[in-house]
Predict the structure.
Amino acid sequence: MRILATYNIKGGVGKTTTAVNLAYLAAQEGYRTLLWDLDPQGAATFCFRVKPKIKGGITGLKKRSSSLEKAVKATDFEGLDVIPSDFSFRNFDQVFSDAKKPARQLLKLLFPIAREYDLLIIDSAPSISLASENIFYAADALLIPLIPTTFSVRTYYQLLHYFRKKPASHLKLLPFFSMYDSSRLLHRQIVGSLPREFRGMLNTSIPYARRIELMGVERAPVGHFAPKSKSDKAYKRLWEEIREKVLDERHFF
Amino acid sequence: MPADQLIYQLPATLAPKEFKSWLEDDHVFEFEHSKDFTRIYLDTFDWRLFRSGSVLEIILEKGHYLLTWRKLGTGVILDQRTMKSLPRFASEFIAPGLQHRMRDVIGRRSLMPQISLKSDTRKLYLLDGEEKQQLRLEIRMDRVVVPNSTGYLMLPTFVYLFPYRGYRGAYQKILQRITASGGLLPAQKDPLTEAMDYLQIEPEDYNNRPEFELNPDREAIDGLKEVLEAFRVIMEKNIQGACQAEDPEYLHDFLIAARRTQCLLNRYPDVFPEEALKLIKQDFEWAEQFASPIRDLDIYLSLFDEFASRLDQAHRASLRPLYEYLRDQKAAKQWQMRTALESTRYKRLMENWKRFLDHKQALQDLPEAAGRPIREVAGIRIADLYREILSLGRELDEESSAEALVALHQTSKKLGYHLELFHSLFPKKKIAWLVEAQLSLQENLNSFHDLNLQHDALLKYRQKMQQEQRTMPVWLETMDLLVEDRESECRKARLEFPERFKKLTRKKMRKQVRSLLEDRGTRGRGTA
Ligand SMILES: Nc1ncnc2c1ncn2[C@@H]1O[C@H](COP(=O)(O)OP(=O)(O)OP(=O)(O)O)[C@@H](O)[C@H]1O
Ligand SMILES: [Mg+2]
């Protein structure tokens, strides 16, 4: 099982939107996919109309290794399951800080179900915390949505700085522009003149689009209610790029 | 908890429409009705999925294929997912997990459409308060498409349940409703079996390595002919697939049969009439020379994923020209083989061969051993081959040429065929040792043989590219890495050889083999 996580210290940049759409596209292509909504606010869970509740909450997960398996819910889409969010996940750091290797707890929880899926996508809450450290440890790659503003670029520097101090060599960083509004000069300028630190940036940008905003109303991935729309196509391109970088590399063909 | 039963039969007295509205009395469903779409059951030509107790069905839906792999009879889902294209081989399932599970069942065989249905399906999705689906129920009215005709055969109406993970309660509720209050009974026969019965399809017990239980006292000529006839049928079944080259397994099975046939033809001059077989033998040899190199290339090509996994990204890219070169070579050889196997010469061979096997000749017109018990006659071959192996093997050391090892490989293979085909003629106690020791040696010689071929092909290719001045440093590096790798694997196989060979030379083993000859069966006829 490959593990991807959306991540950004900043909130409201498109993490959840990305996680939901990519999980849907991966499943459509035949990867058995699991989406874990690690954000106690449960926006991804909401998008799939699943109840934001895990029996026993986070302490239950810690106590019984089988709890995670029982928490899994099928979505309405073939090949795509979710682990719903639970409000108790706001206590992640507290609950796991006294564990033996606190940063490895998430991966440990995943062992019993890892064989059932080809791909896990984690949607994370915006923070740097023990929870995010767990994600960095478990994930093969981080998908980092960046809004093309100077401020956003700065937070990305911060993140790079953080990883420089804490080398996690296996972890691929895959930043890409999100909510790109081509009618705004600033966006155009930033996207057009990428500074050198932005090498490794994915080629696809996700446009700012009303359709994407509507996901919260439709409660479904864009590809489902607006297939072949500009937004759907943008996510498809993004998914293809990510798939090539993270899933295809081990195969010769 | 008893195993789930997910396929039910709708009583003929209950119309799907009525059943649907009865369900809707109690629960909220989202409804979808699709008419006249095609549902296809996929399997290998020898029905490997079916015979393993599973069913693979596929429909085209909203531009994607929806694939359902389920258990035969109960309908329990083994895997269900959408895919962008119709997979033919296990390797074409993009997800590694499914790929491996599929390969365990179908091997390298290709999947093909076995049965098509025209379907009229009513789908009911059970919804909760958030309009989230909790279960899918399908009422399927399928018609079997009769191949090569415009006819259809109507199947009974089946109700399928598709429980959703994490919504067990919803499933139990609906199950209770349709079985307890609705009175629906589990499908007596799987819908696929039902369709197969309609079309009178019976998956034959195809086996590329048939087991023979010959009567040890049977006349040698009869026993051998029975074995040869089985292989003749296998060749016949695989020839078309081998020529089409889609699925390497056809060629593989064709060769298994052809090689065993040739071995038996050459090893029994005291049983078979020399003159009548002269032309047949020549023609078999001629045909095999086209087929064997392709099999070697198939094995080679199947290794590329493994090669790739051992190289880094930069070197991996330079594998592609080699892969393409081998693939082109295979295509050329394939074309030659096809021409040969579709020629009149091959047709004539097969006609003559069948005639020979069918024809019953009087014993007095046949060579002397034709009428002796098969156990005795085969036993002599086994002992002879065993001795040949011992003398070839004893001459080998680290310095010996690759050719010497390959010669031993050939002889060992022939002993292997004999043990595989005739082991049941002998007491298990006496033959089991030999079977095991031979297998262990054969495994070692096989890998040596394959590695050696690959090694030579690599060098030849490297040379060719250099002559054409088409080499780049990273490419040369990759080739050298591979050559070295093959060399070191070959060395490993050589180092392993003495150990494996020793098992065959043990005194006890020699005694066992001798005793195979002493045991003359119950009729006590003939002299060795
Ligand atoms: N490309 C886009 N175009 C227009 N609106 C978008 C786009 N991407 C996201 N949005 C909207 O922006 C808001 C924030 O997006 P989203 O929830 O995906 O961000 P997030 O990074 O997960 O936020 P949080 O940090 O709160 O978890 C949502 O209302 C979403 O509908
Ligand atoms: Mg979010």
